[in-house]
Amino acid sequence: MSTTAIIMMVVALVVVWGGLILAIVALRSRPERTEFPPGGEDDHREDQAVIEHDT
Three-class SS string for 1-55? Predict the structure, then answer.
């Protein structure tokens, strides 16, 4: 492998693994939200059957 190929491989590895580590750290510091903004009331649409049309 040439020097340029090795440098590009190292850069790609740092970007991929660095992004993974950054994502893990960010999720550990701020996990999933417990409160949501008002609105978005549940209207129980999943309780109703799918509308079937005769074609």
Answer: CCHHHHHHHHHHHHHHHHHHHHHHHHHHHCCCCCCCCCCCCCCCHHHCCCCCCCC
pLDDT, tens digit, for every residue of 3-48? Answer: 999 999 999 999 999 999 999 999 998 887 777 777 766 666 666 6
Boundaries of domain holding 11 = 1-32
The whole-model pTM stands at 0.52
Give a yes or no: residue 54 inside a domain.
no
Look at residue 25 and tell me if it is in a domain: yes
The Cα–Cα gap between 16 and 6 comes to 15
